[in-house]
Amino acid sequence: MTNQRENSIQIDKDEFRKIGYELIDTISDFFDDISEKPVTTSKSPKELQKTLGNLSLPANGLPAEQLLSKASKLLFDNSLFNGHPKFFGFITSSAAPIGALADLLAASVNANVGGQILSPMATEIEKQTIKWLAEFIGVSPNYGGILVSGGNMANFTAFLAARTAKAPKDIKKDGLSNSSKMLISYCSKATHTWIDKAAILFGHGSNSIRWIPTDAANKMNIELLEQTIKEDVKQGHQPFMVVGTAGDVSTGVVDNLEAIASTCKMHDLWFHIDGAYGIPAAVIPELKDLFAGIKEADSIALDPHKWLYSALEAGCTLVKNPQYLIDTYSSHPEYYNFSLTEEGGSLNYFEYGLQNSRGFRALKVWLALQQIGSNGYVKLIKEDIALSKYFYQLAEKQPELEPITQNLSIATFRFIPEDFEEIGEKREKYLNTLNEELVNAVQNGGELFLSNAIVENKYCLRTCIVNFRTTKKDIEDSIEIIVKEGRKLNNVMQVI
Ligand SMILES: *Cc1c(COP(=O)(O)O)cnc(C)c1O
């Protein structure tokens, strides 16, 4: 290349290739022996700071090669690997390796997917990705939508569209404070905390949420939902949306979506589904009934970075009538000479969501969808569910483990010491403390990683499998480790 400015930002072609190949070599080694590493090193922030070094920002630049090799070492030696075959915590998947390459490519092109004019092909790829996601989970491909950073943002994006659709029209001008009626949203008490954040941040206040109790199967109690809506209307409030959860974060339960849909129809409410974790399982033929009603949803949140194996970050909002997104998010400053969305088939994603400049997160989702294919996903998701059932069955067989719940790919269970004869309140209190300590000990041990759930006041160990590297052997080994650790802790705690 001729006519270059002299600067410290440029990396010349030969050097870029050399550093790039070295980095790819390091990354392929990492993927290859990820199962040999501890899931996490459990170093304290203090120890990590020491490893990182208290350096000041260099005044003069350093060589890229040296920086990348140092960064690789820091990360590969001091991270928690959710790609590890024995990672079962929270809901973070093992990411499809193609995502790493996709992000490299996306950052190289650096498309700004806020406006079609700035990202001609990237915008088309995102549109196709959205269409595929809708088709994949089994709703009409005419749903429109947008990729966002994750489940929280996907739910927020839908929450605001619901408000536009159902609240008095002057809210956009006058804000909520001028509205005499309180806008109420409804959800089961197992709903993820995003709804709290949304109600608080968007000016509704946490008192505007009705946490509907669950029935014996841990699904939203529809009778109580109906009653509460009627009561609110009587009090002069304005119900506007109901949230059904498709795979709750603690135990994987799917609400009765069909019943919620018909309640929403009856009362003219927006029907939103939080399917951040679970909705990809709608693709499994045997689970069709469980997800009946999803076609009725006005909006759906799903997280490709969970059960679709995208690298972080990738969430998605789907909306049955995408005009509500435009009505919510579009504004046209004089300094944007863009064609409006839909003019000549163009789509400016800044008119579909909260972000203005946007990265090309669609690429990794689009590539993984094709590399794996819909049959590939059906197989992966089915296997994850089967492995979770296996976890549950092994807990059932093991006398010191009490199985508690198993839904989708989440199993919960707890450790009960052999010959444990305590009864009543004292028993539950001891078991809760013991199992809480056990979760911490297992996490710190680094051999496997799981998280916790509280089910009917029982403190449980919780494993969620969204992990294409996990095998039956990993689960058998994990059960052994858990029991061994449980016995050890119990011995120590009994002495105290
Ligand atoms: C994970 C999850 C969220 C939050 O998603 P993030 O991607 O962590 O922002 C919301 N709802 C449900 C049901 C989830 O499982």
Question: Which features does this protein show?
Answer:
transferase; binds pyridoxal-5'-phosphate; Aspartate Aminotransferase, domain 1; globular; 496 residues; Aspartate Aminotransferase, domain 2; 12% strand; alpha/beta; 7-stranded mixed sheet
Structure description:
With 496 residues, the chain is α/β, with parallel strands linked by helices. It has three domains: 13-81; 111-359, Type I PLP-dependent aspartate aminotransferase-like (Major domain) (Aspartate Aminotransferase, domain 2); 373-495, Aspartate Aminotransferase, domain 1. Helix content is 43%, strand content 12%. It contains 14 helices and eleven strands. The chain has helices at 13-32, 45-52, 64-77, 98-109, 120-137, 151-166, 171-174, 194-201, 222-234, 257-267, 323-329, 362-397, 424-445, 472-495, and strands at residues 144-148, 183-188, 209-212, 238-245, 270-274, 299-302, 315-319, 401-407, 410-415, 451-455, 458-464. It has a seven-stranded mixed beta sheet, with helices on both faces. The protein has a four-stranded antiparallel beta sheet with strand order 8-9-11-10. α12 crosses α14 (472-495). The longest helix has 36 residues, at 362-397.
